[in-house]
């Protein structure tokens, strides 16, 4: 158990279907979760970051059959591909879900058995529409509105009539609505809340099992002919993987679920309703002595990456950036450049983002090469030239007139910390990155207005130059701490160059930082060797056609 004064943070991504290899959309959500998880580790929170794969879908067994493999063998291959992609990108998850794992299967069976016993799951018959691509039952009115085609991939819906077990979602309408009322931050961004609230008002019971899955799935306890519907099996992952000794406090602290808008209904309505139902079952009202089973803290539903022509990037549409294309970006620009672009220019809000190579290069050059990278080189070069590569003293007075937005002192550090923290907490990552970047542009303005390279021509002014450069280096150190969740590898290089390698050591292997202490002004010790090193982000030259 964590110490009582430690905050706990639990963050998840969707678990991804293993019918195929990963693509940029999957990498995106996992990167966003990784940036947010790193912020919490940096801050010292007891953090748990879960990602993984969703295996028991019909499209997985169908694809396996096409390749002459068992569903498990096909799932194993693709699960390994997801893991490999995430590992290559140094996405530091704490565990990787496999819904075919014994632990997950046993826990899901336990939960469904409890729901059957409580009466919230009952036997019935389903006749209606099914979207096979989304593995989703579609209500008649929604099917009709979309001309009986999938809202996502446009393929015709399939008519289904089967014996099912149903979950009494309709019995939880009022409790769900009350939860939304009491916790307006439950669904983010705000603009997405209304559509869910309106749909909850009319929510009907939902099937939670399927027949004819060919044995691929978790059997319904007591009825071997039925398997638990893949979505119910999948949603439970968020709980099963922390329903073990040493992890349950993560669940009770409230999960933050990152997902895309197409699966918001499952996460914002069905999932909390299942938990409300489970809470009433024996053993869950005081769950392992930790109190009533908690509901998630937040469901953050982002929009899509779309191709430049505006279509959703997806495997079935064949317009996605696959692992090979992702590798190319990493080889050309580095891992951190891809992370930075995804996290700060991606569709976290309510609008889709086009993945444009031109915008990628523009962002790389503007923020990473010309701002952070350039400022770090400039300052370390001058420290090398005028002070032999050692952080100078900073006791001399600066005589230059400096505009208020170019002053470098404690107030810059404090303001940057406030802006970064507020936006990281709200998962507004572009604004969170601005805090560090604004600190860097203040350094640039400070250099322009104080002109240390001119002052240095007069030896008597070297102490003043020293103070200027010390302040610049100190502001860059603070900016780098705030930028670490976005560009951890380059920032760690930078830390090693300025005598702060111990930050990197503290954060290695899912370790913890001390954000508040590290952004205190004045910690860089005069006399510390400051290495110049290669440019952190070399400028990318666009070839003229
Ligand atoms: N298996 C379900 C989720 C179960 S969670 C309990 C599923 N899997 S999926 O493989 O289709 O992955 C969907 C998720 O991948 C989206 O919610 C989103 O996080 C990510 N993305 C897939 N395509 C995307 C884009 N084009 N753009 C942004 N994110 C995308 O649904």
Q: Any ligands, ions or cofactors bound here, and which?
A: 5'-O-[(L-methionyl)-sulphamoyl]adenosine
Oligomer: single chain
Q: Which structural class fits the helix and strand makeup?
A: alpha/beta
The tally of domains stands at: 2
CATH class of the largest domain: Alpha Beta
Low-confidence runs (pLDDT<50, min 5 residues)? Answer: none
Q: What is the radius of gyration?
A: 26 Å
Structure description:
The protein is α/β, with parallel strands linked by helices. It folds into two domains: 8-306, 3-Layer(aba) Sandwich (Rossmann fold), CATH 3.40.50; 356-518, Isoleucyl-tRNA Synthetase, Domain 1 (Orthogonal Bundle). It is built from 21 helices and 15 strands. The chain has a six-stranded parallel beta sheet, sandwiched between helices. Strands 5-4-6-8 form a four-stranded antiparallel beta sheet. Strand 4 and strand 5 (136-138) form a beta hairpin. The radius of gyration is 26 Å and the shape is elongated. Bound molecules: 5'-O-[(L-methionyl)-sulphamoyl]adenosine. The site of 5'-O-[(L-methionyl)-sulphamoyl]adenosine has 20 residues, from strand 1, helix 1, helix 8 and strand 12.
Brief summary:
With 545 residues, the protein is α/β, with parallel strands linked by helices. The strands form four sheets. Strands 3-2-1-12-13-7 form a six-stranded parallel beta sheet, sandwiched between helices. It has a four-stranded antiparallel beta sheet with strand order 5-4-6-8.
What descriptive keywords fit this protein?
545 residues, alpha/beta, Rossmann fold, Isoleucyl-tRNA Synthetase, Domain 1, 2 domains, binds 5'-O-[(L-methionyl)-sulphamoyl]adenosine
């Amino acid at each position: 158990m964590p110490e009582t004064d430690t905050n706990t943070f639990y963050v998840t991504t969707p678990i991804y279907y293993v019918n195929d290899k990963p693509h940029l959309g999957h990498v995106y959500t996992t990167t966003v979760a990784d940036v947010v998880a790193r912020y919490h580790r940096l801050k010292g929170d007891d953090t748990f970051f879960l990602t993984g794969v969703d295996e028991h879908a019909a499209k997985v067994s169908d694809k396996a059959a096409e390749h002459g493999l068992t569903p498990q063998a096909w799932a194993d291959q693709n699960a390994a591909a997801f893991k490999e992609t995430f590992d290559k990108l140094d996405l530091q998850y704490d565990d990787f879900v496999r819904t075919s794992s014994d632990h997950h299967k046993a826990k899901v069976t336990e939960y469904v058995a409890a729901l059957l016993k409580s009466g919230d799951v009952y036997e019935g018959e389903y006749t209606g529409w099914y979207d096979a691509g989304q593995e989703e039952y579609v209500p008649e009115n929604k099917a009709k509105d979309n001309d009986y085609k999938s809202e996502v991939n446009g393929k015709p819906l399939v008519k289904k009539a089967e014996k099912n077990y149903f979950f009494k979602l309709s019995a939880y309408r009022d409790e769900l609505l009350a939860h939304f009322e009491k916790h307006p931050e439950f669904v983010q961004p705000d603009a997405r809340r209304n559509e869910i609230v309106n749909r909850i008002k009319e929510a009907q019971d939902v099937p939670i099992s399927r027949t004819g899955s060919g044995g691929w799935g978790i059997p319904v306890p007591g009825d071997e002919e039925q398997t638990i519907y893949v979505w119910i099996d999948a949603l439970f992952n968020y709980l099963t993987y922390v329903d073990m000794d040493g992890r349950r406090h993560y669940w009770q602290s409230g999960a933050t679920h990152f997902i895309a808008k197409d699966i918001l209904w499952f996460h914002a309505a069905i999932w909390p309703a299942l938990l409300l139902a489970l809470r009433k079952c024996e053993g869950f009202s005081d769950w392992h002595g930790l109190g009533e089973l908690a509901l998630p803290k937040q469901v953050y539903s982002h929009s899509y990456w779309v191709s430049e022509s505006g279509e959703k990037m997806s495997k079935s549409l064949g317009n996605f950036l696959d692992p090979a294309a992702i590798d190319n970006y990493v080889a050309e620009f580095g891992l951190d450049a891809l992370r930075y672009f995804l996290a700060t220019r991606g569709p976290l809000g309510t609008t889709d983002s086009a993945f444009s190579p031109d915008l990628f290069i523009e962002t790389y050059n503007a923020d990473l090469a010309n701002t952070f990278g350039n400022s770090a080189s400039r300052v370390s070069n001058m420290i090398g030239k005028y002070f032999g590569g050692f952080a100078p003293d900073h006791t001399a007075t600066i005589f230059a007139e400096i505009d208020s937005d170019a002053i470098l002192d404690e107030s810059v550090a404090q303001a940057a910390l406030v802006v970064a923290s507020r936006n990281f907490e709200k998962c507004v990552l572009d604004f969170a990155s601005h805090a560090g970047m604004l600190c860097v542009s203040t350094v640039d303005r400070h250099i322009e207005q104080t002109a240390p390279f001119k002052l240095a021509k007069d030896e008597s002014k070297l102490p003043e130059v020293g103070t200027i450069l010390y302040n610049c280096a100190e502001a860059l150190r603070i900016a780098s701490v705030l930028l670490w969740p976005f560009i951890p590898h380059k920032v760690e290089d930078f830390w090693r160059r300025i005598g702060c390698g111990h930050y990197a050591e503290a954060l290695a292997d899912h370790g913890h930082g001390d954000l508040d202490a590290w952004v205190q002004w004045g910690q860089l010790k005069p006399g510390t060797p400051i290495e110049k090193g290669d440019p952190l982000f070399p400028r990318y030259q666009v070839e003229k056609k």
